[in-house]
Specification:
heterodimer, A: 370 residues, mainly beta, Methylamine Dehydrogenase, Chain H, four-stranded antiparallel sheet, B: 91 residues, alpha+beta, Ubiquitin-like (UB roll), five-stranded mixed sheet, globular
Amino acid sequence: MSERVILSIGTKKGLFVAEAPKTRKSFALRGPFGSGVAVYSALIDTRGKPRLYASSCNAFFGMKVLRSTDLGKTFKETKSAPAFPKEDGRALANIWSLEAGSGRKDLWCGVEPASLFRSGDGGDSWEMVPGISNHEHARKWQPGNGGLCMHTILRDGDRVHLGISTGGHYLSEDGGATFTASNRGIGAGFAPDPYPEFGQCVHKIAGHKDAPGRLYMQNHGGWADWDGPGGPRPDIGVLRSDDHGRTWRSIAKGLPSDFGFPIVVHPHDADTVYVLPLEPATRTCPGGAPAVWRSEDGGDSWRRVAKGLPKKQSFFTVQRDAMVIDELKSPALYFGTTTGQLWIGRDGGEEWDCLFDSLPPIHCVKVAVV
Amino acid sequence: MTVTIRVPGPLRDYCEGASELAMSAPTVRAALEQLERRHPSLYRSVCDETGAVRRHVNLFVNTTHVRDREGLETALAPGDVLTILPAISGG
């Protein structure tokens, strides 16, 4: 069978799967799976025979993990979902991230309230990772508007980067046994101390497999006009690290807003990075004209790429996990909106086209070539 | 002391399709503890990790909500029916 592009689309009303040949001219849609239930995280695990995973945030009966072994034609619940030990006192409120681990069936899962779980059997059983879940800071983290979520898990050998809103960036250099708050240079707009040790509202972190020391971050920006204690904090929203996340510096100059949720790196060029700026107050597209902004020099300069996107009267939000890029030679970007549109930006975002315009509100989008 | 637990449709996959389960339990809490042992996935859909009944799930003993009696300590008598009733709501 020739290679196919698979999209996994988590929405407020279940999971959809879209499939296309490598030309990506048109996608066939199937679903919803787990209908009626919000899906905030998904994973297309391409190690060996592909498996699709998705969290299912059932407001009535609790969290479930869905798994498909037939490229998203059918899904079944795994035998269990992550759960805190009974004596812990916390209860799982949502599943925000699913990532592949090192072993064939090793999975990592970030949840709300912010904690980390691992599975060694493809999601049938889970164990809490105490090094971060019981970190001395864990009971001091505060929920953001979306909840106290662990939304980013980036692995690079024994290094593990976690993004927590609002907790900040945590780094492990021993495979996840222990973690340290690593937020030097990451600002916070909602605390008297503009650069606290931890507690930043990190929105998303992205890396590149060929440049593991390089990381990009979309932080909670929009504090340029703050006139409270500590003074204004311009440009704290878009950041870069070149030392494995130990220190961070702003790369927000040139963007129309340093607020946003997703941040995405080009699969073949660690210097090319994409953000989708939003108005900080409304979390919608500036001026009602949505645009992706692309830097090809690691954030030193930015260019608006919006050909084909609406020019006016579009006030949607793109959530933290709702923008991705595929790994084909000329990669396409994809983003899903809170108004249920799924957009494709062919040729690295040069030309945009709406694939589906009436899905439920979209929480996350994942892509893989299988 | 045999009581009946009535299982709503969306949760029957977690107990081999059964709509009713018979068990011997002196209180609602004891019934839930048995449920945890016999059908852990069903139990986890009714209660969270802390043992609290989920916010949108209601438990009735016969026709009375347990919150209007003694909560999870509500006593069960032979022949009682403990109904799990989710408040399917939302938008």
